[in-house]
Amino acid sequence: MTVINSSNSNILLIGKPNSGKSLLFNQLTGLRQKVANYPGVTVDIKRGKFNEHELIDLPGTYSLHSLSQDEAIAIEHIQNSIADNDTRVVVCVLDATRLERSLVLGLQVQALAKQHNKAVVFALNLIDEVRRFNHQIDLHAFEKELGSPIVALSAKKLDGLHEFTELLKQAAETPENYLVNNIDSDSSNELIRSRELAKRFGMNLDVVLKDQNRIDNFMLNSVFGGLAFLAIMFVLFQSIFTLATPLMDGVEVAIGALGSQITQFMGEGTATDFVQDALFGGVGSFLVFVPQIMILTLIIGLLEDSGYLARAALMCHRPLSYFGLSGRSFIPYLSGHACAIPAIMAARTIESPHKRLMTMLTIPLMSCSARLPVYALLIAVLIPSDSYWLGLFNLQGVAFFGLYFFGIVMALIVSLILNKLTKVDLDKSDMPFILELPSYRLPHWKPLFQKVLNSAHQFIKRAAPIIFMVSVIIWVLGYFPSGASLDDSWLGMLGQWIEPIFAPLGLDWRYGVAILMSFLAREVFVGSLGTLFGISDAEENLSSLADKIQADGLTLGAGVGLVLFYVVALQCVATVATLKGETGKAKIAWGIFLAYGSLAYLIAFLANQILN
To answer: Which DSSP symbol is given to 277?
Structure first.
C-alpha cells in the first residue's frame, strides 16, 4: 500500500461509520462529498482544504482489527496515513450517542498516533441528540481521562463547530502542544477502557434506543415490515418515472428550442445536418434522461441518511441467504441501481469470500442508471403516457418497477444456480451476520442535494464524451458517401451485414447498430438511435425519438424483447474491467459477459416469438 503523500501538511479525519465523520468533513471543507451510513460505501479517500492544510477523510471502520476485506483496506490506509511524515494532526470523531463503540477505535488510533508522535484531538459529534435526552457530559473530566483535547459539536446543526475549528487550527499550527503524553500506548485493553469511559460519561443506551425500538417494532416486523419494504421499493421506482416526467419534458423543450435557434442561422448543408442530427439528435436525446438519474439518487440518499437501508439489509438477510447471499449483499445490490462499478467494490464488506463472489457476479443484473434512458425510451414507445393501473398508478411507472424487479429476480436465480453448481461448502470462516442499525435521523439536506447534483454531473461527464464520439461516428457513416440515402451509406452497408443476427429478435439493422455501439456504455443506445432516426426521418416533424420509433412500427414482441435484453445483457466494458480487478481473474469476468449476453439474446428471442 502506498503511503499518502502531499506537498501540504495533512490533517486526518478518522471515525466509525454512522458517526457523522463525512458530514463534518463537508462542513470543514465545503466540498461536495457523499455522506453514507455503511462501511464500504466511503472506501475512497476524500481530500479538501482546511486553511492552508489538507484535510483527509479516511474510510470508516469500527476498530483497527479487520473482519472483512473492506475493513482491512481501510485499516491499512489509516495506519499508513498516521505514519506519514506529512501528517500533523489526527482527528478522532466520536458518536456521542454510542460512545463505547466509538471509543474502541478512538483509543486504538490515539495509541497508534502516540507511537508515531502525532497530535490528536477528539470531536464528540451528535451532541444535539444527547442534549435532546437532557444528558450532560463533563467535557473537562472526559478530556483529562482521554489525555487529548475534545470538543462537543453537532456537524448537522453546526453547534460547537466554531470552537472545534479554532482548536483544529491551533493544533495544526503547533502540533507539538497536542501530543498524547499520559496514556499507555498499549491498546490491548481498549475494550475495557472504552466500556469504563462510556459508562462514566456516556448516556444510557437504552434511553437512546427507546424511540428507535418503537419504530423498529413495526419496520422490522415480519409481516408489516415486509409490506412496508415492498411499498417503499415500489414508490422508489414509480417516482423515478412520474416525478421526473415534467423535468424531462422541460429539458426536451429546451434542447429542441436551442437546436432550432442554432440551425436557423446556419442555412442548409452538411454542417447544419451535423449539428441537427449528430449533436441534438444524438447527445440531446441522452440529456433528456438526466432528471431520472437525479431522482434515483435523491430517493436512495433519503433512505441512506434516514437509517432505513440498514433495516432493509437486516430484513433481507434470511431470504438472501437462501440464494447463497448475505444480508450485506442488499447494500451492493441497491447501490448497483446507481452504478455497478462502486457496487461491486462495496461487496468487499461481505466477510464470506464465496458470498462476496456470488454478489459481485450478479450485481450487473441490477438495473443501473445507464439503463434508465433505454428503459424510459422503450417504455414510452410501448405504453401510452396516460395509461393507469387500477386508476391510480401510472402504467409506465409500473413497467419501470417490473423491469427493476425482473433484474433482481434474475440476479437471485443466477446466484442460486451458481451457488449450486460451484458446490462450495459453507465457509468455515463465515462470521455471524452483524450489522449496526443507525439511529433514525432526518437527512441533512444540503449535502443530499449536493450529492444529487454531483450524480448528474458525473453521469454527464462520464457518458457525454462517449456518446458524442459514437454519435459523430454514426453520423459520418450514415451521411456518406451519398449524403441522402441511409440505406446506401456506409452505416447502412454495415447494418445490413449484421442484420441477420438481430432479425430473429424482430429488429432491423438500425437497432443492431445501436446495440453494438452500446457495448461501450448502455446509454449510448439512445444517442445512437437518436442519430439514426434523426437522419432517416429528418423530414418528418415528430416531437421526440419515442414518437419516431413508434411511428416506425416497432412491434410489441420486439420492443419487450429489446428492453428485457437490456435488463440482462452485460454491456459495460468498465464493469467487466472492475469484475476482473476484484476477482483477479479475466476468465470469470469475460465468462459472465458472454453468459449474460447469450441469456439476454435467448430471452429477447422468446419474447418476440411469444408476443407477436
So the answer is: I
